[in-house]
Write a structure and sequence with these properties.
Chains A, B, C, D: This is Gfo/Idh/MocA family oxidoreductase. Chains A, B, C, D: It comes from Nonomuraea monospora. Chains A, B, C, D: Pfam families: GFO_IDH_MocA, GFO_IDH_MocA_C3. The structure is a homotetramer. By secondary structure, the first copy, chain A, is α/β, with parallel strands linked by helices. Helices cover 32% and strands 26% of the residues of chain A. Chain A contains ten helices and 17 strands. A nine-stranded mixed beta sheet of chain A has the order 16-15-14-13-7-12-11-8-17. In chain A, strands 3-2-1-4-5-6 form a six-stranded parallel beta sheet, sandwiched between helices. In chain A, strand 14 and strand 15 form a beta hairpin. In chain A, helix 1 packs across helix 9, helix 5 packs antiparallel against helix 10 and helix 6 packs across helix 8. Chain A is globular, with a radius of gyration of 21 Å. Chains in contact: A-B, A-C, A-D, B-C, B-D, C-D. At the A-B interface, strand 7, strand 8, strand 11, strand 12 and strand 13 of A face strand 7, strand 8, strand 11, strand 12 and strand 13 of B.
Chain lengths: 383, 383, 383, 383
């Protein structure tokens, strides 16, 4: 480790995404032979007290209470953006302009215009940039990609992707930031629909070229979330409008001729994080469900579906971890992402997914919204 | 058995559907206490030789080579129509006008106009009439319906239905009648899409009120099927145009406010007869896959999915059969259908699904075709 | 059908087994090209009234109230024994001596001595004889056998077989005949343990050569079953001793060197008819669970387990039935059994499983009982 | 973190177990509110060069090349033993006598005598001691334990436990230390059989009181493993004797009256790490398979099995991690173990499982070996 170059990391945000990114930064070097040794240098958050506590718990050496200060620091070469989507563009562009490498949580931005600006900034910058669609780094998803590339399922006919959750089925669940359009951009569509669009494009190697969509907000008003009371215990009777979609359904076409079906919802009772994708090709099929993330199902040669436990040493990323049958968890996808990002930074290669990949997803989401607004008519995704 | 009134049955067609209906007529009386004892009186088919052979094997007492003769016979009170969809309307109307009870294979007809004529004939007739959406009689589907009626999953938010097969993925599979629009009316849409539309409406108790659709024919030309050569071995190089859809995808809305997603395809490699439906409600969810037809999955009270083996005596239809854990097969759905039909005939009650139910499905299919033809725009289902 | 020789069948007993055998006799000719056309000639039972009602419902032409009369009849060439095990030997021997072919429910007999007498009678007789281990005719089990014969899983290392039910977990479930040693011979051991021993021997082609066993009766006394009151509703407080095992566990060795583990119990809450077998070989593995009877799981070449939907035309017995993905049920195993039996009768071949196969199972059960009685010591199965 | 007392950890061994323990020590503080902050002070290994490299990669501050030095160090308060079983007793006793807390990999020792000495040393020592049966810390296993304690499945009738692997099915797999009795003590029995014995005792709260056993070594000789050549590539034709069991099967009784069945094997082709346990009680059942480690199956009230995704905040250990549906992996079981150990150290409570628990497992294994050696006769487990 001593003969590797150390590279300083500054992370902005320490909520759910910040916690999981921290675990990845902390662990990656113990499992992968990295060209660069990350140093958890600085954590930025608005509250000094809370940021200090988070830094202590998560293992960051220093803190800033203004992300602009973090972006300027000499001991920071990588900026990791774990904030809500409405601040991604501003932070990422500033960081890129300051000569930093940037890894940014998904969705890339809340609007296509912001995403375009980010792509332009990335193109003009010295640093590498990556959007954190972590599901690409589920070993089973990466293995699916490999099988498609190898031609094992032939020409693709169907993509069937769903992201099903149920955390807001209760009408008394409060109006958190993810249910507010100004913060989150959209609801299920941008939060989880973005993941299945990216995964479908990644695994098939094809783009979504047009969509027809329906969206719905089942619960129009919810109790206001009060910071002190926490979730679901507001005490107050005040309610506010839900300004994002609860569910988004769309069908469409892929650039290679396949038909695709997408569904993102937070109202699928009993489904906790069922990010599922099934792909049918002329020679075989693949199926995956994140609720059983260590399994990939493959049908080849007209046979039944084989449950591949994606824990073999020659499966993507797996060789670094445990023996066969000893599964990985959610957080490992981030560890893999950061490993790939560090390699891209070291070699100067373009990370995958790039900001351009993130923009492509954004354009699909935008086409979905336009289609839904215009009587579900088939809407081309802009290039 | 001797003190039950015997009722004569005449069946038209002896291919796949005729074989399975025969097994149902033959078996139903041994398991259910019926008000009427069916007598397998007459089988009709065009070829005398083949019809005689089929009657001998399947257990029919007599044959006709013209269905018009069968419809006239005094020893036939029930006419069972197992022919392709293009002849349903003519036969059913003639049988109803001749005072017979009619059970007709699905889809009810190849066009809405024909279906409307059949509904009118049914309304004017003395006899009972039923369209044979046999999946309503899968015990697990009937149990799902019961749970919805009992309110166990609450207000319905999502219907997710797929009917996936793979029998024509090979481009050399020949141009059989099911791939010709003049015979079959449509492709995957009418053949298997009809089943999931009916099942979705049956289980939820709601109608599909509007759809946005995409259809596709992946393989535009296929070898001509020659009768002597049989499937897949034509010898000839002649090819003909596939005039029906290979796959149909549509999203839509149910009358009670749920969003629905449907997919019918014959290109889902590795899926043999995956007729699946998942329903998410405000209190719970249900999931079913015909490839495991004795199982229903129920999530209630926010818990995980419970695998209910639908083989308990108090489950629909099951008490007539075997002990718990001793599953039923495909053909039992037809036995149940005929049992219900005989009871409706005996009591004068309206069978379910009626011709009107069949027309309702037909109208959905017609809206799907219109939407697909008009840039996937959202299309209301006519009443 | 008219040019096939008709063969008369007489069946003794019309309870659960009689009902399912009747359905098989009734259906077999409609699906299989048989060398002999069975005629459902006579049903025997002790009560005239009940036997007449059963014959009418199940489709038998005539009745007898004494099985000895049935065995003598000229219109009976096949005797089908569906009575409890304590009468098997007497009936089968009488029928064989009367020149009849005999198909006898399992277990072959309640004791090894009886089974030996039956084997001797079978050897001396003109007629064919078969013991009805119907699970050999589950298509998935027959396919497993085929794969083993083809060498697809290599040298067998492990057999892991369980038959799990739960119908007597309630201590108030009454003392039915299956819980009485004089009628049933043994409990879970002979009723369901016999099935997994036979299946293990059939699929592997190896015999169980020695066992070490534990048996247990968890509930020592139960309410007496009164005929009028029916199951579970005795009204009376009288109780009787349970004289059979509730559960039997044994481990042992197969003739080819594999280790085997068996468990038969009626106390596996939530398992309804989980007749399961897993076989591990040097090249692959097979797994089956009757609760999903249309599926066989195969691992080959070190890969994951493939779910084979055993509904393809080239799978054993399946070609006679429905298209791929349209599953079969419990009763079909009996239809297959009778089809094979009729072919054996027509050709004079030895049916499988023969009475000798039944005796071999009986000897294993006897070794289990001896081992359990003698401190679980390893006990060789006699030849 | 700053106001927590820091506690120094010294770990001996850096192979598979050392790597996973390191990840646990590194991560535990970021997720759990700990009374003590572990400091990764010293790593001990025989080779200076390799130990230094491992320390650098795994994050240990210093190294020792003799574990005796590590045990003496003032900056080490906890000794973590990750060596093969033959050295456990010597190291653990020395560490305890030096006043350290000890966490020791399983099995506790290679013989009952060693284990007894360790228990005696633990009883005499100031420090806390724990044996690392990590499967107790699979959230699903801990939840199963909770359900049993709450009485949800009633009186336990059956335990059915298997640990199935396949990593040595190839006869050319070399003679690694795990296949040598002097190093490993036993084969599948002690390595993986120990886990299912502990898990069965933990979940049921009952001890195994007697067993009847069979063991087998399928492949008697294997290529010698040469250190330079690595696994499976020996080049040499030299072979050595396999001195441990490849598989162990045993049936037995639990202290509460349940029957139990155990099977540990490394020859279950296609099973990678199938550590499975099913428990049937008078009111319900539980089932688990580590290959799907985030799932627990519960049947209650006679219903079907419910798939509980053990990722809810109120499930054991889960609240510290990710939202519902975001599963954990193998290594988390160690993180949980260390969290519980640190709490025990801080409070002076007895850790679970204690050395006494480890001894109890050892006594079961010893009874298994005696039974297998003595014709499988039923052998009481000594107290």
């Amino acid at each position: 480790m001593s003969d590797r170059t150390t590279i300083g990391v500054g992370m902005i945000g320490y909520a759910f995404m910040g916690r999981v990114h921290s675990q990845a930064w902390r662990s990656v070097g113990a499992f992968f032979d990295l060209p660069l040794a990350p140093r958890m240098a600085v954590l930025a958050g608005r509250s000094k007290e809370r940021t200090e506590a988070a830094a202590a718990q998560l293992g960051w050496a220093d803190i800033e209470t203004d992300w602009r200060e973090l972006v300027k620091r000499d001991d920071v070469q990588i900026v990791d953006i774990c904030t809500p989507g409405d601040s991604h563009a501003e932070i990422a562009i500033a960081a890129l302009q300051a000569g930093k490498h940037v890894i940014c949580e998904k969705p890339l931005a809340n609007t296509v215009a912001e995403a375009e600006a980010m792509v332009a900034a990335a193109a003009a910058a010295q640093g590498r940039s990556m959007v954190a669609f972590n599901y690409r780094r589920v070993p089973a998803i990466a293995l699916a990609r490999r099988y498609v590339e190898e031609g094992r399922i032939g020409e693709i006919r169907h993509v069937r992707a769903q992201y099903l959750q149920d955390w807001i089925v209760d009408p008394e669940f409060p109006l958190v930031w993810r249910l507010q359009k100004d913060k989150a951009g959209s609801g299920a569509l941008g939060d989880i629909g973005a993941h299945i669009v990216d995964a479908a494009q990644f695994v098939t190697g094809q783009n979504v070229v047009g969509v027809s969509a329906l969206t719905e907000t089942f619960i129009k008003e919810r109790p206001l979330a009060t910071e002190s009371a926490g979730l679901g215990a507001t005490g107050s009777t005040a309610r506010g409008e839900v300004t994002v979609d609860d569910a988004a359904l769309f069908i469409g076409r892929m650039s290679g001729g396949a038909l695709a079906s997408f569904e993102a919802t937070r109202f699928a009772n009993g489904r906790k994080n069922a990010m599922r994708i099934e792909i049918n090709g002329s020679l075989g099929s693949l199926a995956f469900d994140f609720e059983a993330m260590n399994e990939l199902w493959l049908s080849a040669d007209g046979g039944g579906f084989e449950r591949i436990l994606v824990t073999e040493p020659d499966h993507p990323y797996v060789g670094a971890w445990w023996p066969p049958g000893h599964g990985l968890g959610y957080e490992h996808t981030f560890t893999h992402e950061i490993k790939d990002f560090l390699e891209a930074v070291a070699t100067g290669a373009d990370p995958s997914p790039s900001f351009a990949d993130g923009l492509r997803v954004q354009r699909v989401l935008e086409a979905v919204e336009r289609s839904a607004a215009e009587g579900s008519r088939y809407t081309n995704v802009e290039d």
